[in-house]
Design a protein that fits this description.
- With 158 residues, the protein is α/β, with parallel strands linked by helices.
- 34% of the residues lie in helices and 25% in strands.
- The radius of gyration is 21 Å and the shape is elongated.
Amino acid sequence: MSNKKILTYGLLFTAGVALFLFWPGNSTSNMLSNNTEVVMYKNEGCQCCTKWGDHMQEGEFAVEEVPVPVLMQVKRDNGITRELASCHTAIIDGYVVEGHVPREDVERLLSERPDAIGLAVPGMPTGSPGMEIPGRAPDSYDVLLVNKDGSTSVFASH
């Protein structure tokens, strides 16, 4: 084989590899992890939010914490009202997950894929993921499915 052919094949191979690596959606983080990305918007220094993120990472989720100066604006931009609000807002695979929603409910949401905004646990119920207090009994709480028209229905009860 001539040097010209070797050089041509080498150049084509290199171009193909470069195209694959730099094609949108083919980042090395996507290739190395099958975890679903969670982008969690929170107030700076909120530890219960970080604990919820740790709870999510125990499953098949990769959590990125994003401190923001005006968290209510993130909520409003994503269809979350004051009545539904909690201490953090996450975006997971196109859905909004507001507050201390258990991982298994998020997994069910992503499996069933309802035509909705997402899930919310209003407030910060004791015993919900990230809100565990040793020696204190957990509160009963509902996880709400937030529909696109703003209405809600009970998705799960804990």
